[in-house]
Design brief:
The complex is a heterodimer of chains A (287) and B (275). Helices cover 31% and strands 28% of the residues of chain A. Chain A is of the alpha+beta class. In chain A, a hairpin with a 4-residue loop joins strand 9 and strand 10 (185-190). Chain A starts with 6 loop residues before the first helix and ends with a helix. A five-stranded antiparallel β-sheet of chain B has the order 7-6-5-4-8. Chain B has three domains: 2-76; 111-195, SH3 type barrels (Roll), CATH 2.30.30; 200-274, 2-Layer Sandwich (Alpha-Beta Plaits). Chain B is of the alpha+beta class. Chain B is built from eleven helices and twelve strands. The mean pLDDT of chain B is 87. The chains are: A alpha+beta (287), B alpha+beta (275). At the A-B interface, helix 1, helix 3, helix 4, helix 5 and helix 6 of A face helix 1, helix 4, helix 5, helix 6 and strand 3 of B.
Chain lengths: 287, 275
């Protein structure tokens, strides 16, 4: 099923349709971020809903020749609110918890500031931007730029020429999805690992490191750790689990970060990598 | 999927016209897609639709408070946009337009916090100074919520329990209930400290580290920076923290060149490391 066919997208479309009665089809599709087929599917759903009194709820007139669509909807439709407090909260917190001074090509600085200020006055949020350092990190979405990025599990930085597309989040934190101009691929970058953004960064060809997947067996101390793993297997009659990482460096970093909730059993290369760091910190603390 | 979406929008419309205390029978009778279902099928569909609406941020709660005469379902979850709409100081068209442009470039669907759907109720309770109750670590808590705190991609509720400000991890809160009465206190907090910050001792430490390592790992622990200097490629940073395990994680990940702290702090860190 098309991933756009969900209640959230339909709610978003309703909120957009309420803005005005007459739309250019392209404009509506673009604003709702859906395709033509999705739009027709949603319009059909809405047209099958009746008001409590049996009156029409939603009425539309599609003019494909002139690429237009007109709406003549009931008061009930206009009174239907589909922007929830939760959606506003998610947008506000995602916008304001990233180490990037983010701007949008099609939104003026003033409008973005007003939007943020309006929501800031409503949400009692603490520590959202306390440790944010976004000097030298200004990013305009949909505008090509260069970033200096440290990959997961690595300490060396690489330069990428990108077109930033989307900000999202996963268990690693806030994520930037962007087109890598040289590789012509959409890639994900963990925002906290972007250390510099500048149009004039010197590009040097990034060394292509082939990832060798690695399977790690570990003992679990706290079950909460499993939430951070996408795929894992539980070894029967044992407290040990097996999971796979893209490469050994990522595996080592994962078990260093979670040293209090898991202990590596094998392979030695990961076990030793974690132990070395453990010993090095022990030494620093005893000096 | 088509029927589910249709039912959900119909439900919202029904609540919009009737507003509150809607009985289950009324819902079944007034929604065409429910009407023809037997009781079991209706209950199954209604529960599924409630979950979908909750995920979107609507709270569909059954009100059976002993002090009120009417029982039934009530819907909430859009008070913020309703208030913005009524506020003449805010240009609503501009706000909505900006919101739609932003969400095309932000994917807020991937949230990893369990109970994220409690946020709207909590914000309402905080802003209206209500009392709330919930289960936390198998104990029932009755608290006055003061604010939400974000740290290391986790949300926390700061709330007063027995005149003491405590923090509760959002994903561990169960069976949240919001009191009816507003304006129960007049307190406000400039800052919300983690509960353990009052108990454990404060660690002051100087760390000599690669600048980039600080930037990429600083979010793993709760701390404040008291001074920061650069010596060539090395960042010399003085920090204060109560978050001993977070600090250890940070040290392990960032692999600093040198650290300076007093004997007591070193011993505490070593003890925690060897636990």
């Amino acid at each position: 099923m098309n991933k756009n066919i969900n209640l959230k997208t339909l709610g978003n479309l309703i909120s957009i349709i309420k803005i005005k009665e007459d739309w250019q089809l392209d404009e509506l599709i673009d604003k709702a971020n859906i395709n033509y087929n999705d739009l027709i599917y949603f319009l059909n759903i809405l047209s099958e809903i009746y008001s409590k009194n049996g009156e029409y709820f939603f009425d539309f007139d599609l003019d494909t020749i002139n690429n237009k669509v007109s709406f003549n909807n009931s008061t009930e439709f206009h009174n239907l609110e589909t922007i929830t407090d939760l959606e506003l909260f998610k947008v506000y917190s995602l916008l304001n918890s990233i180490d990037i001074d983010l701007s949008f090509k099609n939104i003026s600085k003033k409008n973005l500031q007003t939007f943020n200020k309006t929501l800031k006055n409503i949400f009692n949020l603490y520590n959202l931007d306390e440790n944010i350092e976004n000097e030298n990190k200004q990013l305009v979405l949909n505008q090509k730029t260069m970033i200096e990025y440290i990959k997961l599990g690595s300490t060396k930085s690489y330069i990428y020429e990108i077109e930033p597309l989307l900000i999202t989040s996963n268990s690693d934190g806030s994520i930037l999805e962007a087109v890598d101009i040289n590789d012509k691929k959409v890639k994900t970058f963990i925002i906290s690992r972007i250390i510099n953004i500048d149009d004039k960064l010197n590009t040097s060809p990034n060394s292509k490191k082939t990832n060798t997947e690695i399977e790690v067996v570990f003992n679990l101390i706290d079950h909460k750790l499993l939430k951070k793993l996408n795929i894992y297997k539980h070894k029967k009659n044992d407290n040990s689990y097996v999971t796979t990482f893209r490469n050994k460096d990522i595996a080592i970093e994962f078990f260093i970060e979670n040293f209090d909730t898991a202990k590596v059993i094998s392979p030695d290369i990961v076990k030793v990598g974690v132990m070395k760091r453990f010993i090095s910190i022990q030494k620093l603390l005893t000096q | 999927m088509k029927n589910v979406l249709k039912r959900c929008i119909s439900l919202l419309t029904l609540f919009n016209s009737q507003s509150s205390h809607i009985s289950t029978e009324y819902i079944k009778d007034n929604l065409e897609d429910y009407r023809n279902l037997n009781d079991t099928a209706f209950k199954r569909s209604f529960e599924r639709d409630k979950v979908l609406l909750r995920e979107m941020g609507y709270n569909l709660d059954y009100l059976n408070d002993k002090w009120i005469i009417d029982e039934g379902y009530n819907i909430s979850g859009t008070s913020i946009i309703d208030n913005i709409k009524k506020n003449h100081k805010i240009n609503f068209d501009n706000f909505i337009n900006t919101y739609h442009l932003i969400i095309n470039n932000l994917n807020s669907a991937n949230d990893f916090t369990k109970n994220f759907s409690y946020v709207s109720k909590l914000i309402n309770a905080i802003n209206h100074k209500k009392r709330i109750s919930f289960e936390y670590n198998n104990k029932i808590r009755k608290v006055y919520p003061m604010g939400l705190k974000f740290f290391n991609f986790n949300w926390y509720l700061g709330a007063e329990e027995g005149n003491k400000l405590k923090t509760y991890k959002l994903d561990k809160i169960e069976n949240l209930k919001i009191g009816n009465k507003s304006g129960l206190h007049s307190k406000e907090y400039k800052n919300i400290k983690f509960s353990w910050e009052d108990n454990d001792h404060l660690i002051k430490i100087k760390i000599f580290i690669q600048k980039e390592s600080y930037l990429i790992y600083k979010n793993v622990f709760n701390h404040s920076v008291t001074s920061k200097k650069y010596h060539d490629e090395t960042l010399v940073i003085d920090i204060k923290t109560h978050d001993i395990f977070g600090l250890l994680k940070f040290l392990m990940l960032s692999n600093p060149q040198k650290i300076e702290t007093n004997k007591k702090n070193s011993n505490s860190l070593l003890e925690a490391l060897n636990e």
